Request: fold
Amino acid sequence: MAKQIKKSPRIMLIDNDEHIRDSLKIFFDSSQMDFLIFKSASEGLNSLKYQKIDMVISDYFLPDMNGVEFLNQVAKNNPGITRVLMATIVNDDLKLEILKAGIDRFIEKPLTVASLDTIINELTK
Reply:
């Protein structure tokens, strides 16, 4: 029986914080994951037109729309894609918005690379 090789997930991260993007790029460049990093929702949506992505991780606070709106557009154009939202400030309204949007996972910032890596591995199994 032939052994199946599992391909590494292709992950898109959207975050307007340059330090977060740079830190995650350094870490994930050394991993087996294919990681694309953008600073705005419009860059991410444009990239999704041309590439197959397995998971999108977005910050809530983006320069051109909020992360829930962005992830809703992702789901509309790419049904079945795994969606993860990150945010620093969490209140009941945001929790309700996340629940209504059917977002797969919520991560409260500040986050560690290790915790993000664990979540990615859980969601891509």
Summary: The chain is about 40% helix and 20% strand. The chain has a mean pLDDT of 87.
